[in-house]
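Figure S7 source data.
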Amino acid sequence: MIRKTIALLLCCLVLLAVPVHASECAHEYVERREEPGCENSGLLWQECILCGHKTGYTLLAPVGHSFADWYVTTAPTCTREGVQVRDCTVCGARETASVPPSGHAYGAEVKHPTCTAGGYTRFNCQFCTSYYIADYTQPLGHSYNIILLREPTDTARGQVRFTCTRCSESHVTYYTFRDIDSDAYYFTPVLWALDAGITSGLDDTHFGPAALCSRAQVVTFLWRSAGKPEPVSAWNPFLDVPKGSFCEKAVLWAYETGITTGTDATHFSPNASCNRAEVVTFLHRFRGCPEPEEGTGFPDVPAGSFCHKAVLWAAQEGITLGMDDGTFRPTLSCNRAQIVTFLYRDNMNP
Ligand SMILES: [Zn+2]
Ligand SMILES: [Zn+2]
Ligand SMILES: [Zn+2]
Ligand SMILES: [Zn+2]
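Tokens for the predicted zinc ion complex:
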């Protein structure tokens, strides 16, 4: 009897100790969640309030940081990167990034050329000491007012006073040419060319205004007016400009700078006469082939002719006034008076 009672008791104890089996709970689920963080996942699940059974797990993706705006902690310089940060308003996590260099901010300071010194533009950075210099310009050269003080006689040299209208530099030049009339259009240009070392005349007393100019002479005049620059290379493509001839450096310089290409690949034809079209073309190329403004120009230099642009430019610049009858006469041989006058007008208006 006691044995039977103990067995029954044990049975009851076992029944009490073993929880109610899952399948026997009517499960009343509620939703439970662990909120996700900036970087950590969250969790969503169903949990029975009766038996605590959990089911239906769902991962909740991290929501990511909620960053405030970037702010600069180290300002960039012209050339060095800076630093910026932003903080998460939720977790305080900090992100760091570079700020690109600001780059130089250059302002131009123009130095204008004077009669004797070239100009340039200095670009200064507004934020640092960096600068660079560019856009060099040529010296203007003096702009002379030329006054005849005394004409030459058989016994005394002529005297001319040169006074620069820009910088007031002033000096007297003497001359002995007896074939340049003080009323002639080329009087001032010839004295200017003499003073500038561009011509020394045919001899002491003759400039030779009506003498025709050879191609060698024209290029030599141009070369001297440019300040006698040394040619860069010793290569001479022209068989008819022998080494050591008076025009050798001038022709090589003109060839190098594109002022002349010769009359063919191996000839410059130094002794050939030079017509007005050629002279003006040389000058136009010497000035870098500036584009003339729209215009009609001279009736005998039609659009499409090889020298049209050069002649139009020269007319607009006041380098040529043309002939009295309104023509230019491109094929007329250029005499020494004309070439010196072209050069003079070009130099007075650089
Ligand atoms: Zn349950
Ligand atoms: Zn965060
Ligand atoms: Zn700078
Ligand atoms: Zn001057």
